[in-house]
């Protein structure tokens, strides 16, 4: 299943989604009409663009590799959405990059396209042929969570997107209130507006009002989260080191990072290594589905009724557990 907003590189794509032939580069527009070319040939320190190759995998934006005499660049464009989406992505990538923990592509430039839409230019990372070590991924991710802290509380400097859904990141000093209002509550409102799903909305609100007891005895610090960590956003470079990309960053409870675990393939070695760096908190197992719920609700809002039953099953399970 292709996940909105996610981007995976060709080594993990089925043959039908790969581009078999790279297109030779030719351009007739002046540099002033092509800000991507203009940046690459000035600040990118290239004198020639030798090839532009489309790269498959994204559902929201178009991705390309720009080969030049100073090395390759990775470029995403979106013809419908302005720079704010890519600005949020760049801020998240820079925040993760600054932790000096797990490898992420370094963003170089975000801007508007003259014909409408926007672009982002970033480091091109050549991926290895394997998926890498789950154990190393768990440790590196935990190191990022440990290093990436915020004195402002829970949230992020800007709102961003989870797929193509707005993700509200207004700062809050209370994680449970933040998660209730800006994560579960926001998605429930979208489902009510889009589908008239009053049953889910009513039950979801009951869960929100009673979920604080799931956090008893837990110390919650605002950790820098990737925010959309599924298998298509995880790879490894040629050295076998893990790489994560296409984030929906914010500062939140570290356990929320595992909300996409149902399509991330995290195994026992991943969690064992992770908890060696970030120790497991009391009641972790009872909160896992709560964080999955956010992403099931988002998939319901993005892709339709196929995800409703999974979301409702989690909500009903918690209402029974919490006697709400």
Can you give a write-up of this model?
The protein is an alpha+beta fold and 324 residues long. The chain contains eight helices and twelve strands. It has helices at 35-40, 84-98, 134-147, 175-195, 198-210, 268-277, 284-303, 308-321; strands at residues 23-24, 49-55, 62-68, 73-78, 107-112, 118-123, 160-162, 165-167, 223-225, 234-236, 242-244, 250-252. The strands form four sheets. It has a six-stranded antiparallel sheet. A two-stranded antiparallel ribbon has the order 7-8. A two-stranded antiparallel ribbon has the order 9-12. The longest helix is centred in the middle third of the chain and has 21 residues, at 175-195. The chain is globular. The model is unreliable at 1-29 (pLDDT under 50).
């Amino acid at each position: 299943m292709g996940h909105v907003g996610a981007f995976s590189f060709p080594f993990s794509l089925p043959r039908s989604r790969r581009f078999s032939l790279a297109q030779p580069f030719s351009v007739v527009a002046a540099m002033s009409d092509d800000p991507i070319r203009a940046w690459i040939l000035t600040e990118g320190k290239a004198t020639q663009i030798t090839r532009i190759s489309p790269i498959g995998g994204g559902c929201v934006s178009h991705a390309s590799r720009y080969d030049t005499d100073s090395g390759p660049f990775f470029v995403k464009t979106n013809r419908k959405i302005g720079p704010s989406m890519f600005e949020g992505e760049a801020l998240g990538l820079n925040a993760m990059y600054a932790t000096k923990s797990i490898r992420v592509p370094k963003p170089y430039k975000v801007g508007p396209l003259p014909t409408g839409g926007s672009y982002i230019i970033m480091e091109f990372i050549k991926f290895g042929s394997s998926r890498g070590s789950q154990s190393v991924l768990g440790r590196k991710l935990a190191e990022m969570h440990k290093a990436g802290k915020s004195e402002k509380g829970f949230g992020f400097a800007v709102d961003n997107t989870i797929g193509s859904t707005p993700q509200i990141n207004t700062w809050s000093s209370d994680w449970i209130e933040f998660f209730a209002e800006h994560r579960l509550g926001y998605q429930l409102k979208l489902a009510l507006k889009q589908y008239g799903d009053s049953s889910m909305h009513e039950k979801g609100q009951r869960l929100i009002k009673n979920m604080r007891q799931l956090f008893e005895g837990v110390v919650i610090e605002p950790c820098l989260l990737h925010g959309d960590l599924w298998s298509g956003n995880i790879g490894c470079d040629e050295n076998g080191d893990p790489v994560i990309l296409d984030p929906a960053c914010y500062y939140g409870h570290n356990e929320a990072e595992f909300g996409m675990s149902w399509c991330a393939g995290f195994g026992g070695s991943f969690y064992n290594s992770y908890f060696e760096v970030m120790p497991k908190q009391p009641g972790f197992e009872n909160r896992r589905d709560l964080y999955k719920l956010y992403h099931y609700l988002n998939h319901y809002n993005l892709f339709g009724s196929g995800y409703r039953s999974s979301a409702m099953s989690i909500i009903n399970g918690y209402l029974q557990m919490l006697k709400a």
